[in-house]
Amino acid sequence: MPQTTESDEHKALRSAVAALGNRHGRPCNAQELWSEAGKLGYLGVNLPKEYGGGGGGITELSLVLEELGTAGCPLLMMIVSPAICGTVIARFGTDAQKRRWLPGLADGSRLMAFGITEPDAGSNSHRITTTARRDGADWLLTGRKVFVSGVDIADATLVVGRTEDARTGRLKPCLFIVPRDAPGFHRRPIDMELHAVEKQFELVLDDVRLPADALVGDEDAGLLQLFAGLNPERVMTAAFAIGMGRYAISRAVAYARERTVWNAPIGAHQAIAHPLAQAHIDLELARLMTQKAARLYDAGDDAGAGEAANMAKYAAGEACVKAVDQAVHTLGGNGLTREFGLASLITAARVSRIAPVSREMILNYVSHQTLGLPKSY
Ligand SMILES: Cc1cc2nc3c(=O)[nH]c(=O)nc-3n(C[C@H](O)[C@H](O)[C@H](O)COP(=O)(O)OP(=O)(O)OC[C@H]3O[C@@H](n4cnc5c(N)ncnc54)[C@H](O)[C@@H]3O)c2cc1C
Predict the structure, then answer these.
(1) Where do the Acyl-CoA dehydrogenase/oxidase C-terminal domain residues begin and end (predicted)?
(2) Secondary structure of 187-211 as H, E, C letters
């Protein structure tokens, strides 16, 4: 296991999760792994103890996801259910919402998806038009979402809408828990070229009637509430990418030690060894930034965590794409066979460059917010 500056407690958590992941191995049955990880307390390690969680933070949760990914069995829904939805409910939900949702999200027996992306807004979430309007004590929610993961297996989806400020252009987001079988809530799976157990869905919300307590947090709290969920999402996506990258490199290294076509194993050729070493360094650097972002978030520094989480997600996405590319190349023809199972990671690795915020949007953010350059869009 790579060296870290982590506490003994975190190292012990890493080894315990790694052992669980390795027991399941790749290809793994995600449902079985989810249920076992939930029972062992790993899925809710970030949630408050009084609601069945482990009382830790995103630091611990991201470590769990990274180690499962390193073992070849990443659980994408961890990014969504405990990290985004669990955090938002724990921070802004009512006592009743916390009692209703957190114990199940913590032990993995309940799942919540998260929908913000819209077909006509994409990266520009200020342009979302899913609109909530009041009807007596109820809310009526209307709009469309796209690429929302795991809606079929989730008990509910946390949907980002806006109240009727829709035409002002300034987003005042509000978050609603929409049960999977709510009347008017339609889903259609998107045919993705991605080998993953979690499916992506296009959603249509057609005057979905929701009770007053479907609203999480304050309808006027705006972006603060939303970013309480989006920063953990970025940290978790970084951990997802680092895990996948580490898995790919470990497979490539094992192969390069054995495969011999001249006089020595191919790993003795620097043209094979150096790019693997570089990929390893990039993953380690990305992990340091991810740990920084997680610690800032857990310390309550939302602004600092925002910048660090963006940078960590960027670095991890780039490192993952490079690591997978080099791993596939190391295996030669076997890099593209089903038996070795690395080629499908080429597509999967790209996800961390695109979602939840693309590399270009992070570069825009850093140019503008960190460096103070003029905004280009
Ligand atoms: C596997 C997968 C799972 C997902 N799961 C979820 C989920 O659970 N919930 C959810 O809400 N969403 C989910 N998403 C959606 C994801 O967050 C979006 O795909 C992402 O935000 C990008 O939006 P878009 O696809 O509309 O791309 P677009 O916004 O159309 O961007 C297309 C390209 O243009 C570039 N671009 C756009 N604007 C600029 C600019 N100003 N400057 C420079 N370049 C720019 C982008 O970087 C990108 O390369 C998922 C996506 C994938 C692929």
Answers:
(1) 222-364
(2) EEECCCCCCCCCCEEEEEEEEEEEC
Crossing angle (nearest 10°) for helices 30-39 and 95-107 = 120
- E strands present in the chain: 112-115, 131-135, 138-149, 156-162, 173-179, 185-189, 200-210, 215-216
Name every protein residue with a CB atom under 6 angstroms from any ligand 1 atom: 80, 114-117, 122-123, 147-149, 194, 200, 351, 354-358, 360-361, 364, 377
Q: How confident is the model at residue 167 (pLDDT cuts 50, 70, 90)?
A: low
Which residue lies with its CA nearest to atom 18 of ligand 1? 355
Instruction: Pinpoint the residues of the chain covered by CATH 1.20.140.10.
Output: 223-370
CATH number belonging to domain 113-216: 2.40.110.10
Domain 223-370 has CATH 1.20.140.10: yes
Confidence (pTM): 0.97
Q: What is the pLDDT of residue 2?
A: 42
